[in-house]
Amino acid sequence: MNNFQFVNPTKIIFGKDEIVKLTKEIPSGSKVLLIYGGGSIKKFGLLDKVKNTLKEYNLGEFGGIEPNPTYETLMKAVDFIRKEKYDFLLAIGGGSVIDGTKFIAAAVPFTNDDPWKLIVEQLPIKNALPFGTVLTLPATGSEMNNGAVVTRKAINAKLPFRNPALFPKFSILDPVYTYTLPKKQIANGVVDAFIHVMEQYMTYPVAGMVQDRFAEGLLLTLIEEGPKALETPEDYNVRANIMWAATLALNGLIGSGVPQDWSTHMIGHEITALYGLDHAQTLAIVFPSMLKIMQKDKAEKILQYSDRIWNIPKNISDADRIALAITKTQDFFETMGVKTRFSDYGLGQEVIEKIVAGLKAHNMVKLGERGAVTPEVAGKVLALSL
Ligand code: NZQ
Ligand code: ZN
User: Fold this and answer.
1) Global pTM?
2) Ligand 2 (ion): which residues have CB within 5 A?
3) Sorting pLDDT into bands at 50, 70 and 90, what band is 41?
């Protein structure tokens, strides 16, 4: 196992009706800005619930954070907060609202220069506004990690950043709030979480037995519970298990002490920036082809996965076991309703050159656990996904 340090300071408050705990977590007397997306939380009554719970606080609202949150919108929130002097942020929504809030939290006190530099130059973040979250879409793990992904529309760039100052103080995870998710978002969430696990598991063995078994437990849970969430959307335990699996998939635990990949994610970000596909759709397109192209490097772990996750018999050739495991993975995404080819989204050959150029422009030129996914390799992966 590789050396590692692990710290995760986010307090998780999990379960039905736990929203009432908000008042225990937000310091009394705070001036709180409620940050949300396109309005689902208004439609389903969650915003009113939050406001009612926090009625003793001085509250403001900033709505309209879009999926794949943009720098352009987030900077409007930054200006508003600087003017109105809010001192606590509460993100209510999915990964986009939470990621957007992380950027806002870091950008508000960063007054000497353009906060975009916090992302592109990964400048140190000395202080950030404190924030908590109320999660409505299990997928990204943003509710318990210190990363965020922000898009700058004007230059077609979707870039990740992370900083120890950007862990949420707390996150409220009530599975009931996920009942209203459209099927497409349920599926996106399951596929995103699945690929988060895979990007930390599907590399090469370093005798991380604990990490592997944790990862495999999460994969099996997502495979078993994901389709049930589509069929019986109001099954509490199904939703609870998906929610907790998605959080654990990217809170630093399973990735500690093991190599990590993330090439599929970085290529996926370029696809979203250029063509606006949902995050999980891009991953479902790239990941099966990435496994095919990188199968020699990843052979030992793919064989372990084929056995432990898909029960593929060991009496066939290794090449067949690997091929079958990749097919089963792709079939799982399709079963969830997330399509796995560019052609399913009306895109073709023309995308390859642009995506590869995007990777080069953003210096994503040595991706993967061994830095072996160069733009040329990425091009081959994309060609296999047409
Ligand atoms: O905006 P509203 O109206 O709230 O609607 C949202 C949005 O349209 C809707 N939604 C959310 N909760 C709902 C709901 N609709 C009904 N009922 C509910 N309970 O779902 C739509 C998608 O929301 P979004 O937040 O965009 O989805 P997701 O959670 O998948 O987040 C995606 C973003 O997170 C980034 C992605 O790149 C993308 O920008 N990621 C962040 C990561 C991180 N911070 O660690 C890691 C991930 O790999 C990912 O890159
Ligand atoms: Zn993701």
Assistant:
1) 0.98
2) 192
3) very high
